[in-house]
Write a structure and sequence with these properties.
It is a single chain. It is built from 4 helices and 4 strands, in the order H-H-H-E-E-H-E-E. The protein has 133 residues and is an alpha+beta fold.
Amino acid sequence: MKLCSRSFPGWKFAAPDAVAAHCVHGVLLIGARHTIAPRKTAWQHELASFTVELYCNGKLSQRGSGALVLDSPLLALRSLIELLANDAHNPPLRAGEIISTGTLTLAMPVSAGESWTAKVSGISLEEISLRFE
């Protein structure tokens, strides 16, 4: 989302512009922080190979994986870093910025009253559950 704010000063843009720039979230839920350095090699492997199952009201809706994001969310981040390194109009990433590297499953429509859960395997991340009111 940060790249979107850089691309559109003051967040002024039309909906088609935002879609074309791949920078729209209905909601961006950010989980717990994890220390990377002690498990650097493990994280590199896990980010490329982990899987996720997305459930709506307890029923499996979608399956996905880290490999669906340019082969790994880490590789997607590397691509962004390289893009910004060659961009005279946008500064490089700074410490503390939050980067969304893409979706692991198809984006699904949601409705009030639904409960959604994402369950991951193959990586040390927590299950995420939320309910739409």
